[in-house]
């Protein structure tokens, strides 16, 4: 790297000097996915491209997903930690957040599918597994992947199939994220230093006007608008601790404590109801859907508390929730960043209405039966 791949001969095969490049009797092919497609098509009856045009479309769809949503974010996370790029915490945080969103979507799909397309391995599975291999072996610890059990099952199933195992060998999941390394600097030339010349007195630059100097000063990072609201008597972390630590007499301790703490001027309560409950026909898929929503709400953890209920003993299952948000409206950054928000009907709670207030109590408490039906699942965001 950095030597033979910069030669004129190599640049004729790949003009930007990257690897891999496959040399064929008919000419070179570069880009790993293009090489994989080429090799797959060399033998038309191998089944790796499915058996119909729609199979072909779905395989291409998952190849793009694996490359753009999984591999790209893993590489953005990995390179700075190996000293191959400057480490910038906001960039890493964004990459991990995007990766979790992608894994959440993949996890939901795999909850009811063994393979990505059809009932056997296709090129989509080969490329997806290769991309996931980087994550499992170098970045994603067990505590990270445990949120995505169907992705875990899929990955370990595939890497332990004989043909995959022949290439990957005995795969081990990383136990730690690599520590941050400084970006590597180019080595200094071994040329002898020139004889030092007498230093010339540096010309004194004229002082810049104060106004200009102030303009050049780095601007502070803009604060979240919620941080600029007047202080609230409700300390959200105190409520979360009370909720987590109350094991008995929940009504008398936690619920009473909530209303004692609640500040209707600094916070607002919202009911949410899933718009498409008719689609909730498989219990574990519905629960995974709710889990993915809570995962994507992580950006609001400092400003919110939530309860999500999956209701019913038989399909279709109903999904309803209760959310406490800082401020009087649902935060705009949550609406902008969490696409699940538009899948729910949102109604602001009127705490002067005793019936609505009791509904809040029941949702916080996981009261059962809720609205006449048993609870299939109850999840808390805190």
Automatic annotation (TrEMBL):
EF-1 is composed of four subunits: alpha, beta, delta, and gamma. Gene3D superfamilies: 1.20.1050.10, Glutaredoxin (3.40.30.10), Translation elongation factor EF1B, gamma chain, conserved domain (3.30.70.1010). Residues 1-47 form the GST N-terminal domain. Residues 52-180 form the GST C-terminal domain. It comes from Senna tora. Probably plays a role in anchoring the complex to other cellular components. This is Elongation factor 1-gamma-like. Residues 185-219 have a biased composition (Basic and acidic residues).
């Amino acid at each position: 790297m950095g030597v033979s791949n910069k030669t004129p001969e190599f640049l004729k095969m790949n003009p930007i000097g990257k690897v891999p490049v496959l040399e064929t009797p008919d000419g070179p092919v570069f880009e790993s996915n293009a090489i994989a497609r080429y090799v797959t098509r060399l033998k038309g009856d191998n089944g790796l491209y499915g058996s119909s045009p729609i199979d072909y479309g779905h395989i291409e769809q998952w190849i793009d997903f694996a490359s753009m949503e999984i591999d790209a974010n893993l590489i953005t996370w990995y390179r700075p930690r190996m000293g191959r790029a400057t480490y910038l915490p906001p960039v890493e945080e964004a990459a991990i957040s995007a990766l979790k969103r992608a894994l959440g979507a993949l996890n939901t799909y795999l909850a009811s599918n063994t393979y990505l397309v059809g009932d056997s391995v296709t090129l989509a599975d080969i490329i997806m597994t290769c991309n996931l291999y980087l994550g499992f072996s170098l970045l994603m610890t067990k505590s990270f992947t445990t949120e995505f059990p169907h992705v875990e099952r899929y990955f370990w199933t595939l890497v332990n199939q004989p043909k995959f195992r022949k290439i990957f060998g005995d795969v081990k999941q990383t136990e730690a994220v690599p520590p941050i390394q400084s970006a590597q600097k180019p080595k200094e030339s071994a040329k002898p230093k020139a004889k030092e010349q007498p230093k010339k007195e540096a010309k004194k630059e004229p002082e810049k006007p104060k106004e200009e100097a102030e303009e050049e000063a780095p601007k502070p990072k803009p604060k979240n608008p919620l941080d600029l609201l007047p202080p609230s008597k409700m300390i959200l972390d105190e409520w979360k601790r009370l909720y987590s630590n109350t094991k008995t007499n929940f009504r008398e301790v936690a619920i009473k404590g909530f209303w004692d703490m609640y500040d209707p001027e600094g916070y607002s309560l919202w009911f949410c109801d899933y718009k498409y409950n008719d689609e909730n026909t498989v219990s574990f898929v519905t629960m995974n859907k709710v889990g993915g929503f809570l995962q994507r709400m992580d950006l609001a953890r400092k400003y919110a508390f939530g309860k999500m209920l999956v209701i019913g003993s038989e399909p279709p299952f109903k999904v309803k929730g209760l959310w406490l948000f800082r401020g009087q409206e649902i935060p705009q950054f949550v609406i902008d960043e969490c696409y699940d928000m538009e899948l729910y009907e949102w109604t602001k709670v009127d705490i002067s209405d005793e019936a609505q207030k009791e509904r809040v109590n029941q949702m916080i408490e996981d009261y059962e039966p809720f609205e006449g039906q048993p609870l299939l699942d109850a999840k808390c965001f805190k």
